[in-house]
Amino acid sequence: MKGDFKLANQKDSINVRELINKKKTTLNTNRFIEAFVPKFLLGIATISIFTTLGIIFTLLFETVEFFTRIPFLDFFTGTQLKPLGENAQFGVLPLLTGTIISSVIAMVVAIPIGLMSAIFLSEYASDRVRRILKPILEVLAGIPTIVYGFFAFTFVTPLLRQIIPGLEPTNILSPGIVMGIMIIPMVASLSEDAMSSVPNAMREGALALGSTKLEVAWKVVVPAAMSGIVASFVLAISRAIGETMIVTIASGSTKNFTFDVTQSMQTMTAYIVEVTGGDAPAGSTLYYSLYAVAMTLFVFTLVMNLIAQYISRKYREEY
To answer: Are 225 and 194 a contacting pair, CB within 8 Å?
Structure first.
C-alpha cells in the first residue's frame, strides 16, 4: 500500500510539474505574441505611409524637372496643349477644363438621384425593401469602369446624337453622364448612412408637432445629416475627377480649350493614359509633362479629400 501511495504521489508530482512547464511555455509564447503583434501591425501601417511618400517624392522630383524646362505660369495659364512637334506647347488649361466639366456633369446627374435614393431608403422604404434595394444599388459600384466607358461610347453617345444633332462622336457630355451614373451608389450609400444615424426621437418629435413625412425628411433629417451628405458629395467629386477609362474611351483625345460639352475634350487622366501608352522617350519634355499633369491631379484630389474631412468634422452632429 505504501509503495502504491508513493508511486501515486510521484505521478501526481510529475503531472503537476508538466502542467507548470506547459504553463510557462504558454506564458512565454503569449508574451512573445503580445510583443510581436504590435510591431507587426506598426510595420503594416508604415507600409502605406512609405508608399504615399514614395509616390509624392517621385511625382515631385519629376515635376520639378519639368518646370526647369517649361515655365510654371506658361503651364497653368496656357490654353494650347501641343506636346508633339518642334514648337511644343504645354498648357494644362484644356485638360483642367475637360476634367472640371466632366466632373460637373457627373455631379449634376449623381447628386439629385443619389440624394433622392438616400432619402427614400432612409425615410420611406421598409426594412425589407431597404435590404433588397441597397445591395442592388451598390452593384453599380462594382461594375468595371471600362464597361461604363464602352456603354457611354456605344449606347449613350448614339442616343444623345439623336437628340442633339451637333454632338460629336466623341464628346464630354456622354462620359460625364455615365460617370454620374457610376458614382450614384457612393452618394446614395454614404448619404443614407448619415441619415440613418439621425435619432428617431427627432423624427418622432417633428411628426408629433404635425409635420408631414416629407417635411421631416427635408427639414429635420437632411439638415441633421448635412455633414455626412456634403462629405459624400465631395468624395464623389474626387472619384469623378480621378476617373480614367470612361473619359479615355468616350471623350476622345482632342485637347480643346472650350466649354462646349458637345465637342471632344480630354481630361488629365486621359492625357496620362495617352502619354504612357505612346512613344514618349524617357527624359523628354513630353515624358516629364506626364508627371506634371499627374501632380496637378494629385493636388486636385487631395484638396477635395481635405475639404471633405474638414466639412465632416466641422459640421458633424453627435447624438
So the answer is: yes
**Burial profile 84-110: b = 16 or more Cβ within 10 angstroms, e = fewer:** eeeeeebbbbbbbbbbbbbbebbbebb
* pTM of full prediction above 0.85: no
Is 93 among the domain residues? yes
Out of 5-9, 106-110, 157-161, least confident range: 5-9
C-alpha cell at 51: 508608399
Shared domain for 154 and 290, answered yes or no, is: yes
199: left (phi over 0), alpha (psi -120 to 50) or beta: beta
- What does the pLDDT look like over 32-82, one tens digit per residue? 777 777 888 888 888 888 888 888 888 888 888 888 888 888 888 888 888
Q: Can you give the CATH number for the domain in which 112 is found?
A: 1.10.3720.10
Backbone angles phi, psi at 281, to 5 degrees: -65, 140
Average pLDDT over residues 271-290: 79
Evaluate whether 105 touches 176 at the Cβ level (below 8 Å). yes
Q: Are residues 222 and 118 in the same domain?
A: yes
Cell of 306: 481635405
Residue given cell 409635420 in the structure block: 211
Which CA distances in Å does 283 have to 45, 59, 85, 270, 273?
Answer: 34, 14, 16, 21, 18
Among residues 264, 104, 260, the alpha carbon closest in space to that of 168 is found at 264
What range does the domain containing 203 cover?
81-314
| pLDDT per position as a tens digit, 147-202 | 998 999 899 999 998 888 888 888 899 999 999 999 998 898 888 888 888 888 88
- How far apart, in whole angstroms, are the C-alpha atoms of residue 60 and residue 62? 6
Residue 173 cell numbers, joined: 457630355
Overall domain count for the chain:
2
